[in-house]
Amino acid sequence: MQYFSFSKKGNRPINADYLITDAKKGIFIIADAVGSNDSAKKTSQTACTIAHEECLKKEIKEPMIKIISALDEAHNSVVRNLPGSATTLDLLLIENKQAYIGHLGDSRVYLFRNHELRQLTEDHSIRHKIYQAIGLPDSVPDQINPPKLKRGDLIAMTTDGVHNSVSREDLTYLFNTGIALPDLAEVLIWEIERKGEYDNYTGILIRI
Question: From CA 116, how far away is CA 112, in angstroms rounded?
C-alpha cells in the first residue's frame, strides 16, 4: 500500500482542514471544520485526534464498532470542549484488504477501480449547508463497507475544496493516468489553484 496526502489553505486566512495518516495501523482520517477561524482549526484537529486515539484501543476488535466508537468519541469531545463548533469527518480503516468507512458531512471517499470512479460516501449537505457533522445534534454517521480491496485500487479522500474544484470527469481522467501518487497530488493541486479555489483543500490518496 502506498499513500500521499496534502492540505492547503487556499485563499482562506486559516486552514481549518485536518488529516491523519497512520498507514501502519491502516487508519486514514480527514476533516473539514465549519468556519475559518482558530476555533474551526481546533475543531477539525480535535475530532481527528480523538477518532485516531479511539481506533488504537486494543479492546475494540470489530472494525465497524471501532469506527462508530471513534466518531462518537470525537463528537462528544467537540460538543464538550468546543460547543457550537462542527466538522465533517471521514474515517477509513483498512484491515485484511477490506475497507471500512465512517462518514459525516460533505467530505468524500472515492474508490477508483477498473478505470471507473465510484463515490462511496453520500454528501450530508444541501446547497453547501451541512446537516450532519461531528458537533451537530442528532447526527448519525454512515457506515460503509465497500467490496474487498484489490491490487491497483485507488482510494481518494477529499474535502470539498478538492471536489468542488475538480470535476468527477477530470478526477477519473487523472486517476486513469496511473502516475505516482506524489505526481498525481501535484497535478491536483495545480488544477485546484489554477481555478482559484477560495476554500481550504485537503486530500489523501491511497493505492493498494
Answer: 6
* CB within 8 Å of 52: residues ≥ 6 apart: 20, 22, 27, 29, 70
Per CATH, domain 2-207 is 3.40.50.2000: no
- Nearest partner of 142 among 90, 180, 179, 187, judged by Cα: 90
Q: What is the pTM of this model?
A: 0.95
Instruction: Count how many residues are written for the chain.
Output: 208
The answer to whether 205 and 5 are in contact (CB under 8 A) is yes
Q: Residue 69: exposed, middle, or buried by beta-carbon count in 10 A (0-12, 13-18, 19+)? A: middle
CB 75 within 8 A of CB 48: no
3-state secondary structure at position 128: coil
In this structure, what C-alpha cell is assigned to residue 38?
A: 482558530
pLDDT (tens digit per residue) in 51-71:
999 999 988 889 999 999 999
- Helix ranges, the chain (H): 38-55, 63-81, 160-163, 168-176, 181-194
- Domain limits, the chain: 2-207
